[in-house]
């Protein structure tokens, strides 16, 4: 009886998950296909719910090495050779595992051996682990392979610091209260996201990038740098315990928000031309995503009156879900862009062909 109940439970869960996955993929694609240049009625089969299927697979050292030999004149593939298959990043999980193990060993040094010399390492690795792992994921996803590791790291360091400098400049111009009311949260959201947006535009224009995946990667690099340096600064202000919360919260904050904005900047500019001030106000494909990112940041920072930890955690969970959904939309739109530029015919699964014929 127990085995039968378990089997029924597994079958029910499998049925529910299949329905959720199909609807999710369809919703994601329905939005993404309206961002591209292809016919809105032309479906695409991407299945982003399977995106992380390679994480737990075994990979060789040569496969890992090939990920880093990109972005040079001899290793950047032509547009015809760019892969338009669904992206399945995996190496980022190894980066996270190494950083997480390093963090755990530093904790042993601090709490078992009472070595205060481990504190700077804890702050650095704790701030770096999640944002940098996410950055590596977006580096893998960039199917054009036209941005080198050196460019990525330069953008990560210089772009992260520059975005903080621009942020502090804006803060000097606007009245920021120490409270976390909706007004203050909105000002913080506008200031920080606008600062990152300005820096992302500078780097995209200077690198002369034109593809959605490129914009997402550059945005993620600047957002990750911003996140690392900001988290490190919060530790000096609020104590070491801050790193334990901010390190995990980074899965849905600055890196993700900036990646969305980077993709939106590419969507909002004229192809093979720089993003200009006019595009900021006249391109809905850009400013709609920009306003959504500001709303996500505001909602994250807002301390709703007369609520406790449960509501705060719910806010963060909602933020993370929406943020990642927008990331998947960008990835979907990026794959559509590859197919459009290559002039390929979008492949439709047999099941969907039958559904279309019935309609």
TrEMBL record:
<feature type="transmembrane region" description="Helical">
    <location>
        <begin position="211"/>
        <end position="229"/>
    </location>
</feature>
<feature type="transmembrane region" description="Helical">
    <location>
        <begin position="91"/>
        <end position="113"/>
    </location>
</feature>
<feature type="transmembrane region" description="Helical">
    <location>
        <begin position="280"/>
        <end position="300"/>
    </location>
</feature>
<feature type="transmembrane region" description="Helical">
    <location>
        <begin position="185"/>
        <end position="204"/>
    </location>
</feature>
<keyword id="KW-0645">Protease</keyword>
<keyword id="KW-0812">Transmembrane</keyword>
<keyword id="KW-1133">Transmembrane helix</keyword>
<feature type="transmembrane region" description="Helical">
    <location>
        <begin position="312"/>
        <end position="331"/>
    </location>
</feature>
<feature type="transmembrane region" description="Helical">
    <location>
        <begin position="153"/>
        <end position="173"/>
    </location>
</feature>
<feature type="transmembrane region" description="Helical">
    <location>
        <begin position="119"/>
        <end position="141"/>
    </location>
</feature>
<dbReference type="InterPro" id="IPR026898">
    <property type="entry name" value="PrsW"/>
</dbReference>
<dbReference type="GO" id="GO:0006508">
    <property type="term" value="P:proteolysis"/>
</dbReference>
<protein>
    <submittedName>
        <fullName>Protease PrsW</fullName>
    </submittedName>
</protein>
<keyword id="KW-0472">Membrane</keyword>
<keyword id="KW-0378">Hydrolase</keyword>
<feature type="transmembrane region" description="Helical">
    <location>
        <begin position="249"/>
        <end position="268"/>
    </location>
</feature>
<dbReference type="GO" id="GO:0008233">
    <property type="term" value="F:peptidase activity"/>
</dbReference>
<dbReference type="Pfam" id="PF13367">
    <property type="entry name" value="PrsW-protease"/>
</dbReference>
